Amino acid sequence: MPTTTAETLSFVNRNVTVAPLVLLSVVDHFNRAAKGTRKRVVGVLLGQNDGKNVRVSNSFAVPFEEDSDDPSVWFLDHNYVENMNDMFKKVNAREKLIGWYHSGPKLRASDLEINELFKRYTANPLLVIIDVQPKESGVPTDAYFAVEEIKDDGTTTSKTFVHTPSTIEAEEAEEIGVEHLLRDIRDVAIGTLSTRITNQLQSLQGLHLRLREIQTYLQKVQDKQLPVNHAVLGNLQDIFNLLPNLTTPKPGGDPKGSNVGELGYAMSVKTNDQLLAIYLSSLIRAITAFHDLIENKIQNRQQQEEKEAKKEEAAAEKEKSEKEKKEAGSNGSGTESGDKSPDKEKKK
């Protein structure tokens, strides 16, 4: 177990990527075993771990039970884990057992004990908590490594989890499969612009959530509810150093003028250009819609006039045929009377 700050930072700086196939498998496991209950599901993670990059590419479920009243009482079938691991090695030898997962949504008191069990199969097991019922937008995974925390007062070290950033990445074959699964969910009628705006909105909501967590942590440190962690503060300082300075005065500008810097001015111009393009697009879309509406009304009116004209022609032809029939009937009766008169004269 790492006992120094450098070794702890080595875990924090690792790049953990989770495949979408793992997310689908965990959600299916939860829906089959624990949906509608307060239980969590546990499984094994398979993939590659080269020391810097951790790739979680596959997983399988494990029989797991725990007491809801006493978190220290739990059961995990390690014989099942060993048998399944041997069978997965026969299918793909590159996928090794690198850790385990559970459906959380947060850390539990027994997680450290379960993590010690998985140290039989790998030196530093990875724990990934997958939120199968997310209430907020963002990445539904949280990755952790177990470390020994050294206290400043020199007392006995205690084991704890260190959070590691995680991302969702898919290979080409996985992207095709995920697109096929989401084809029925995605609304094809929605345009590309609305899709991009929705994605940006979700990204901003995720950023707001992270900033709120940072604010909560700093407030607790200020209120002395949490100890000062110089590693966390150093990372926050690096983040703040990357932020652009929007109040830098423009070169050659009036020092007594506004404090809007060159970057702020460029962002304003860029934003105005984008808003102008959106405004023109909306105008064109509205004009096109009105044009289609007018064309539709003209076509409907023409079709109605054609139907009425056809009805009038049919009525005129019907009247004409009736008149012809009447005339033919009158001419027939006249010829019959003319044929009968000579016969009468002959009889006389």
H/E element order: HEHEEEEHEHEEEEHHHH
> Biggest sheet, open or closed, and with what strands and sense?
8 strands, mixed
How many domains? The number is: 3
Any idea what the radius of gyration is? 39 Å
Shape: elongated
Gap between N and C termini: 146 Å
Q: How much strand?
A: 15-25%
- CATH H level of the largest domain: which superfamily? Cytidine Deaminase, domain 2
Q: Any guess at the CATH architecture of the largest domain?
A: 3-Layer(aba) Sandwich
Number of helices: 8
- Taking pLDDT < 50 over at least 5 consecutive residues as the criterion, the unreliable ranges are none
- Kindly name the structural category: alpha/beta
CATH class of the largest domain: Alpha Beta
Q: Helical content, roughly? A: 40-55%
Record field, number of beta strands = 10
The overall pLDDT, averaged over residues, is 83
Q: If you consult CATH, what is the topology of the largest domain?
A: Cytidine Deaminase, domain 2
